[in-house]
Write a structure and sequence with these properties.
Elements (H helix, E strand, L loop, with lengths): L8 H33 L1 H22 L2 H12 L8 H33 L5 H27 L3 H24 L9 H21 L9 H24 L2 H9 L2 H38 L2 H38 L8 H14 L8 H4 L3 H54 L6
């Protein structure tokens, strides 16, 4: 059963503060990285890098096959209990499975490079993709190990490890520039960073779950694969959902419209990362409470969280909207990017309205219902795609912002209704 300390709002605040600090660093590092690439090597190199990086992120979903969510659920529920002799085996078996799957996916990506080069006929594309494959292999394993850290509620360590990834990337970038290396090999920086982080995470996690007394249990293998493959589609559709508006703008309008809209998406996604931070902090609490049947206590705890988080989102959205006209003028001058203002307004309104429930977007997988999690993600993706299909031809990029903002709201309503019906978790509705 969850202790009062585990459901403590004070502990939540401490964990969230560490991870918001990590988020601020990650956002700053990401901006610096893109400015360096664009400023030193030009827009073409930056463009190739971002296409390769998109493939890298999408392929990582196949590399881990949902097993990071399986171990997150298991560790969140069982860690710290005296009567869990199989937990150590379960963690190690999951790691071995991810190792095998990630190795296979990385090999398949290598085989597909010549085909992808025909699709993306960019100079240096294949070299960049080859160089990032070792990072892809390590990245899938790192997602698994970070889920272990998350599940044990070592959120300070989680924040530090998340930040270390970008510390290593920035340091690698400095070394890359000092030696004036060929920009087509820049993705080696990503690979080395992930490999170094993997070494650190491996030591940290296996001090908690050592190899001693390990034995192979086919029941645990089936448990991980059954859960992971059922929730896997949720991750893939989730990645697609973050890009469906951009893809449809490209299909219905033109590349200039995509470029302008991307500015509003960049800011809105930065705001959305605060949802990810809070979700990571509460996921272990949600899983343990649902397993223990203490959902009434959980609902009280989540109500406090949602109040504070909604206030934070209102403040953040207001700052983004008020500062945007001045920031875009300073950064781009008279380049037409001021047209991203109204799509940004629509996106931030959607985020603010949905804020009380967005951090619960993984409640279904944490409650042991991975198929329901996949169904929820498919629903949000379908709503997003349908609204974009209807509104973009009529209202352009403003319609895309409205469509995606509405998908946030519809997703929040679905979370509220189903979480209450299936688990007895009631925040406000």
């Amino acid at each position: 059963m969850m202790s009062s300390e585990q459901l403590s709002y004070r502990r939540f605040g401490s964990d969230a503060l560490w991870n918001f600090g990590s988020l601020a660093f990650l956002a700053s590092a990401g901006i610096v990285l893109n400015v360096i690439l664009g400023g030193v090597y030009g827009a073409s190199v930056l463009g190739v890098f971002n296409v390769v990086f998109a493939i890298y992120i999408f392929a990582s979903q196949f590399g881990v096959l949902g097993l990071h969510l399986s171990v997150l659920k298991v560790v969140s529920i069982e860690y710290g209990r005296p009567e869990t002799p199989d937990l150590n085996n379960s963690v190690i078996i999951g790691a071995v499975l991810v190792l095998l799957i990630s190795t296979t996916v990385s090999f398949l990506v290598l085989i597909c490079v010549p085909f992808l080069q025909r699709v993306y006929e960019f100079d240096g594309f294949s070299t960049m993709l080859y160089c990032i494959v070792p990072g892809l292999w390590a990245f899938a394993l790192n997602k698994y190990f970070l889920s272990i850290v998350n599940g044990t509620r070592k959120m300070r360590a989680f924040a530090i490890f998340q930040s270390l990834r970008y510390v290593f990337i920035l340091l690698g970038t400095v070394v890359f520039l000092i030696f004036n290396a060929d920009p087509n090999y820049f993705t080696l920086v990503i690979s080395f960073s992930e490999l170094i982080l993997l070494f650190i995470l491996f030591i940290f996690c296996f001090r908690i779950f050592p190899f001693k007394s390990f034995r192979c249990q086919f029941s645990l293998i089936r448990q991980h694969l059954r859960f992971g493959t059922r929730v896997f589609l949720s991750g893939v559709m989730g990645e697609l959902n973050t890009r469906v508006d951009v893809l449809m703008i490209g299909a219905f309008l033109n590349e200039r419209s995509v470029g302008i809209y991307t500015i509003s998406v960049l800011i809105a996604e930065g705001l959305y990362q605060s949802v990810v931070v809070v979700r990571n902090v509460i996921n272990p609490v949600v899983a343990r409470s649902i397993a223990d049947g203490t959902t009434e206590q959980l609902s009280v705890f989540l109500r406090k969280v949602s109040l504070g988080f909604s206030g934070l989102m209102i403040f953040g959205a207001a700052v983004c909207v008020l500062v945007f006209p001045y920031a875009v003028d300073l950064a781009f001058g008279d380049g037409g990017f001021e047209d991203a203002f109204w799509p940004l307004v629509a996106l931030t309104i959607g985020l603010v309205v949905a804020a009380p429930y967005l951090p619960l977007s993984m409640v279904f997988s944490q409650g042991g219902r991975p198929t329901l999690q996949a169904g929820f993600t498919a629903f949000v993706l379908a709503v997003n795609a349908i609204f974009n299909l209807v509104l973009i031809p009529q209202y352009g990029i403003v319609g895309a912002g409205i469509a995606t903002g509405l998908s946030y709201v519809f997703g929040a309503v679905m979370i509220a209704v189903i979480a209450r019906r299936e688990f007895g978790v009631r925040v406000w509705m």
